[in-house]
Amino acid sequence: MSSRLNPYISFDGTARQAMEFYQQVFGGNLQISTYGDAGASDAPEADKIMHSMLETDSGFTLMASDIPPGMEHRPGNNISVSLTGDSDEELRGYWAKLSADGVVAVPLEKQMWGDVFGMCTDRFGITWMVDISAG
């Protein structure tokens, strides 16, 4: 397997809901392991996500977990996820789903550099940048 870079997002108890939402947006195979699966079945966080990974047919990989007890949660401002490519229909479809019930900071429209670009924060506080290449 070659090296790859992908985002890893930490949530404060909503990792399952967020990753299931991202699976609805992008499709693909979602694997989820809870703290209970790892042997902490009696702990209060047993049903929380220790690790999850979404791998899509488009080659996207997104990982996430719920923060372990005692760690600080810093939502939103510590990560953004960038989707780039030249498939207008595919990327606009992702944009529509990600921006629904979220906050649009930059509308998805043609920018001065020629690409169609938009930025939004989804309903889970994650910032997404979508860039559709001009060609």
Automatic annotation (TrEMBL):
Native source species: Saccharopolyspora kobensis
CDD domains: PhnB_like
Protein name: PhnB protein
Coiled coil: none
Superkingdom of origin organism: Bacteria
Domain Glyoxalase/fosfomycin resistance/dioxygenase: 5-130
